[in-house]
Amino acid sequence: MSTNYYEILGVPREASPEQIKKAYRQLAMKLHPDVATEADAGERFKKVAEAYEVLGDAKKRDLYDRGGDPLGGGMGGGFNGGFAGANGGFDFTNLVDAMFGQQTARGPRSRTRRGQDALVRLELELAEAAFGTTKPLRVDTAMLCPRCSGSGAQEGSKPVTCATCHGQGEVTHVQRSFIGDIRTTSPCPTCRGYGTVIPNPCVECSGDGRVRSNRTINVKIPAGVSTGNRIHLAAHGEVGPGGGPAGDLYVELEVAPHEVFQRDGDNLEMVLRIPMTAAALGTEIRVQTLEADLEDADDEDKVTTITVQPGTQSGTRVALDGRGVPRLRSHGRGQMGVTLMVQTPTKLDKEQRELLRQLSELREETSVEGSVQKHNQGFFGRLRDAFAGQ
Predict the structure, then answer these.
(1) Whether the Cβ atoms of residue 128 and residue 229 lie closer than 8 Å to each other
(2) What is the CATH number of the domain that holds 49?
(3) Residue 93 — φ and ψ, nearest 5°?
(4) Are residues 13 and 80 in the same domain?
(5) What are phi and psi for residue 196, nearest 5 degrees?
(6) Choosing a second label site near 315 at 20 to 30 A (CA), which of 41, 104, 365, 373?
(7) Is residue 277 a known part of a binding site?
């Protein structure tokens, strides 16, 4: 055995295929004529390529280990005009695969492939997002061709073997260079790598096996969702080429603004304006809840009672537990927060003005000096939000 391929690649005889490939990739990148500057780089590159051709192939490596000639006479007598001795050239595709750690698929590829995933957006009302619903959704996607059932061929015909690549799905080109014959493999231009051609394509889908169509699906919305949440519908996306399995459909939700409520996590916030007298004397006020937007909700759930304590100040927040948004994939509900805004009358008749004057005298408030009261940030934040909602 005149050539020690293991020594050329710098690996032991018991090296694994992964070790051999790694060693070859490192040497090939170092010695390739396009990057190497050493005078003997070209010759060393050819030896490394020959060593990998033998040791990278399980059958050739076994023959070599048993003392045989895996290159059919090329081991002892040079390269015979190419990298691979008697096989007529060096496959450059294998070099690229080894250098960049890739593995080029060989042979014909299937016409049937999985379809792409699809993303659509769906707008919900606040009550629908809070309590859950089922919404019809119209989508435009690729569907299985009804005429050919995904085969792509006209009725009574079928794909035939490609005459260019003879069913291999790829063609090989040989180019001579100063380092020998270089072979490159690429998908067949006639069949596009399928190995077969469809002489009589389906008139409905033009051979693709699928057509675009509108369809309506019902999407179940769980209670407690919010803007940005996505619902995953498996196998409801695009049907793949050749009638392949459908991809998945993702429905991204967007909750429309409500005219009364603002959502804060699982809480619902609203602003309620009350008269000055009600704030001073105290009262009970019935207000609608978010359930009022639901047609099938019980009447007793559509309203609730707010207790206004005597002397209530503007900006006071009354919290009603269990009246907010149901927690997504959990139990319980958030709060319904009602911020009370005290309205000062702007139009008074003579009698009303006189009554207020008498009240101010009784309270010794005819001459008032204002006082500054410090509040925490949370209070002002709630007050600011309340005014913003007016």
Answers:
(1) no
(2) 1.10.287.110
(3) -60, -40
(4) yes
(5) -135, 160
(6) 365
(7) no
148 is in an annotated binding site: yes
The reply, when asked if residue 145 is annotated as ligand binding, is yes
pLDDT tens digits, residue range 305-326?
Answer: 999 999 999 999 999 999 999 9
**Tokens representing 352?**
């009303």
* Distance (Å, whole) CA 24 – CA 282: 88
| 86 annotated among ligand-binding-site residues | no
Q: Does the annotation list 188 as a binding residue? A: yes
Q: Can you tell me the distance from the alpha carbon of 325 to that of 229, in angstroms, rounded to the nearest whole number?
A: 15
Please identify, among 211, 238, 255, the residue that sits at the C-terminal boundary of a domain. 255
Contact call for residues 273 and 346 (beta carbons, < 8 A): no
Q: Is 192 annotated among the ligand-binding residues? A: no
The identity of residue 368, as a single letter, is V
Q: What is the pLDDT of residues 115-162, one digit of tens each?
A: 999 999 999 999 999 999 999 999 999 999 999 999 999 999 999 999
Are residues 124 and 111 in contact, defined by beta-carbon separation less than 8 angstroms? no
The residues facing 96 across adjacent strands are none
SS3 (DSSP) at 8: helix
CA distances from 180 to 55, 84, 90 (A): 20, 9, 8
Residue 365 known to bind ligand: no
pLDDT tens track for 323-377:
999 999 999 999 999 999 999 999 999 999 999 999 999 988 887 776 666 655 5
Domain count, the chain: 4
Range of the domain at 88: 5-100
The response to whether 165 counts as a known ligand-binding position is yes
AA letter at 9:
L
Whole-model pTM: value is: 0.66
Indicate which CATH number applies to the domain containing 298. 2.60.260.20
CB neighbours of residue 240 within 10 Å: 22
Find out whether 108 and 194 touch, Cβ atoms under 8 Å: yes
Residues 273 and 331 in one domain: yes
